[in-house]
Design a protein that fits this description.
Radius of gyration: 21 Å
Helix content: 25-40%
Largest sheet: 6 strands, antiparallel
Number of helices: 3
Number of strands: 9
Order of helices and strands: HEEEEEEEHHEE
CATH superfamily: Immunoglobulins
Length: about 150
């Protein structure tokens, strides 16, 4: 075996190892979402969303600040601002992003506004919203998209 053949085999082996590590770290990221009502006034409800991002792998992960969509009965009713920020998560650790405030305008709810306001006023009937976070994990220089949807009851 000559030097060139050995070098090619070595590069291919490193590439396969790198991709398998990349996939493991990207697939192992876990998120937990909590939400609460931050404030209510005559024109809007402001929700505060807390996101916990866990990295249970042995590799460092860099995660883009999450973009959040809030849906009610399969209708997107609000979303967060876009933030161009990366968050470092060390191996076997977690980070918390707290108080991401998302206003929901009553006018944007259309026919759903009456139902939501009634449930909020009565407090007997909780409202379940679907909260979706979209982000990307940067691992070994490559970006892996990550999306997670969770029901949050307020």
């Amino acid at each position: 075996m000559n030097f060139l053949t050995g070098a090619i085999i070595g590069v291919v082996g490193l590439a396969i190892w790198g991709l398998s590590s990349l996939t493991k770290i990207g697939n192992n990221i876990v998120t937990e979402i909590k939400g609460r009502i931050f404030s209510i006034d005559f024109s809007q409800i402001v929700l505060a969303i807390d996101v916990k991002i866990k990295n249970p792998s042995n590799g460092k992960a860099i995660v883009q600040y999450p973009f959040i969509k809030i849906s009610y009965k399969d209708n997107v009713i609000a979303s967060s601002e876009l933030v161009n920020q990366q968050i470092n998560i060390d191996p076997l650790s977690q980070t918390n992003i707290n108080n991401i405030k998302i206003p929901i305008q009553f006018l944007s709810l259309g026919s759903l506004a009456g139902e939501m306001i009634k449930k909020l006023k009565d407090r007997k009937y909780p409202i379940t919203l679907q909260v979706t976070i979209q982000t990307s994990a940067v691992v070994l220089g490559a970006k892996l998209p990550y999306t997670h949807t969770q029901d949050v009851t307020i």
